[in-house]
Design goal:
The chain is α/β, with parallel strands linked by helices and 116 residues long. It has a domain of 58 residues. It is 28% helix and 12% strand. It contains three helices and three strands. A three-stranded parallel sheet has the order 1-2-3. The protein starts with 17 loop residues before the first helix and ends with a helix. The mean pLDDT is 90.
């Protein structure tokens, strides 16, 4: 299940915090839950999993590669983002992903290719 705050250009300052909707998201029984994690507005949200239990047998797919800007994140930053989530939900319950909208993002295809 993926719920997105949108790939539009803008400040995203009115995005609903994940902590306010996580219970609703987890009520939807799914095998995996995709969350935006690379966008500057949502990069801190991994701390939520220190207090919220991922349902047994499910996978978290944090977006560790963003599409909000042209700069390419350093591989160590991408790894850090992934490790943050793995440290609280367990490495066997995490699959790396991109922030939603990456495939239809406003990035030039050459830049998008370099990011992944």
């Amino acid at each position: 299940m993926h719920v997105c705050w949108g790939a539009h250009k803008g400040p995203h300052h009115t995005d609903i915090p994940l902590k306010e909707i996580v219970d609703l998201r987890l009520d939807v029984q799914g095998e995996a839950y995709a969350v935006e994690a690379a966008h500057p507005r949502h990069g801190h949200a991994w701390h939520l999993w220190e207090h919220v239990t991922l349902p047994a047998g499910t996978i978290l797919i944090p977006g560790v590669v963003g599409h909000d800007a042209d700069p390419i994140a350093h591989p160590e930053l991408v790894a850090e983002r992934l490790c943050n989530d793995a440290s609280v939900v367990g490495r066997d319950h995490v699959i790396a992903g991109t922030d939603g909208g990456f495939g239809t993002s406003r990035l030039h295809p050459t830049i998008a290719h370099l990011k992944v």
